[in-house]
Structure to design on (410 residues):
């Protein structure tokens, strides 16, 4: 099932010089954009909706619907923004950099088409500050696109104009959360805003803003060029297209793999990533990063897709697949996860500021008992209900699933 499918995000991986627009154009680049500029924005949104593409940043929100909301929101002087979330802060996630390092024009093409659908005039790529190679490539690609008429006034003679700029993140996990990211882009401290309103209605400087992840934008040119029917042939009923899976842990070949949605964990580990390293046995995995879910071997045959994982109480998240072997110490892993949330909590609200510290203190207890498990789960549920932003909700899933599957390790 996973052998014959078109690659999308990594279709030019290793085949072109990422700094060369000539290489990009000679390998199918800008075909989608040129087609898009001859179509109406509404028809493109309709096609993206029909394709079934969902956001690849973690939440899996339907992309066409977000474009529809953003283009339909009333905007002062018709000003709308497009923002690419390239902060990539989720532990175990290292896929967006693959696109930016190997095919930066693809991201820009996806952003220009998306901007056209909502008639945005200005866009930003918000990149993690330590991603030096990505920053250099995107900067270079933006400069060349201006020189060649793909950015700026009257793009490709279409009458449509769009400006694109770059902004750097400063290492805060919370700044990957879309509303906090917008605060940071506005030059303010990275504190979250209360949702609603969502960015589609009130985003950057209070104006409608389309925020999508790098991988999400990289799918747009394919859908426009080949049509939504072609795109939706890939994947499962509820999860269309390909996905970048970031495989880490003690498997033979760790790395980023572009595969159709719906591949099973067994296929991913044993067929694609070469199986477990010698001397290690598969025990489980952490799916979706620190804010994700632990799973055990009963998940090996479950298709990795939004709907199938949700049915079993798990999540795909950003695509992080951290493999746990028989020698992995889950107690240490949980200490690391809860220390991470404690460190990244911005401190604005009490349930998360105090809660993350209390959870961290409790997990460090030498021997946890049933009372500790109950207390930690209750505390995490309380944080889900009372925290101001999604970061305070993040410890809930890893705590509940580690207790469910690996209680004895704690
Ligand atoms: C604490 C936190 C951190 C996040 N970090 C990222 C990130 O680094 N990159 C990303 O694309 N989305 C991140 N998200 C998700 C974004 O808020 C948002 O859902 C995403 O940018 C929307 O794009 P998409 O629909 O294309 O997935 C984060 C969310 C939370 C709550
Ligand atoms: S939930 Fe945590 S990160 Fe979010 S506002 Fe409250 S303290 Fe800050």
């Amino acid at each position: 099932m996973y052998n014959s499918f078109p690659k999308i995000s990594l279709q030019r991986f290793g085949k072109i010089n990422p700094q060369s627009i000539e290489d990009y154009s000679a390998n199918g680049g800008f075909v989608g954009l040129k087609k898009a500029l001859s179509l109406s924005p509404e028809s493109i949104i309709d096609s993206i909706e029909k394709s079934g593409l969902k956001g690849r940043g973690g939440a899996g929100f339907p992309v066409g619907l977000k474009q529809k909301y953003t283009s339909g929101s009333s905007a002062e002087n018709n000003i709308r923004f497009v923002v690419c979330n390239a902060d990539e802060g989720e532990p175990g996630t290292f896929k967006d950099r693959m696109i930016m390092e190997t095919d930066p024009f693809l991201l820009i093409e996806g952003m220009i088409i998306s901007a056209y659908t909502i008639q945005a005039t200005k866009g930003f790529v918000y990149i993690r500050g330590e991603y030096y190679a990505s920053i250099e490539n995107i900067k270079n690609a933006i400069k060349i696109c201006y020189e060649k008429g793909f950015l700026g006034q009257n793009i490709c003679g279409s009458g449509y104009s769009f400006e694109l700029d770059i902004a750097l993140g400063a290492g805060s996990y919370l700044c990957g959360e879309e509303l906090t990211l917008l605060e940071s882009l506005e030059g303010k401290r990275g504190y979250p805003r209360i949702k609603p309103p969502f960015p589609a209605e009130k985003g950057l400087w209070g104006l409608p803003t389309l925020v999508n992840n790098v991988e999400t934008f990289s799918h747009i040119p394919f859908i426009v060029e080949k049509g939504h029917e072609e795109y939706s042939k890939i994947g499962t009923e509820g999860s269309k297209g390909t996905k970048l899976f970031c495989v880490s842990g003690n498997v033979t070949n760790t790395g980023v793999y572009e595969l159709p949605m719906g591949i099973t964990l067994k296929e991913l580990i044993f067929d694609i990533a070469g199986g477990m390293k010698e001397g290690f046995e598969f025990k489980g995995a952490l799916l979706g990063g620190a804010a994700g879910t632990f799973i055990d071997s009963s998940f090996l045959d479950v298709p990795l897709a939004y709907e199938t994982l949700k049915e079993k109480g798990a999540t795909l998240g950003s695509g992080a697949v951290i493999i746990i072997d028989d020698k992995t110490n889950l107690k240490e892993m949980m200490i690391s996860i809860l220390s991470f949330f404690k460190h990244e909590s911005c401190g604005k609200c009490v349930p998360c500021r105090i809660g993350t510290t209390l959870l961290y203190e409790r997990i460090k207890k030498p021997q946890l008992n049933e009372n500790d498990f109950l207390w930690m789960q209750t505390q995490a549920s309380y944080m889900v209900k009372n925290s101001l932003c999604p970061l305070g909700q993040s410890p809930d899933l890893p705590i509940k699933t580690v207790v469910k599957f690996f209680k004895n390790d704690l």
In short: The domain at 330-409 is CATH 1.20.1440.230 (de novo design (two linked rop proteins)). Residues 370-386 form the longest helix (17 residues). The longest strand covers residues 242-248.
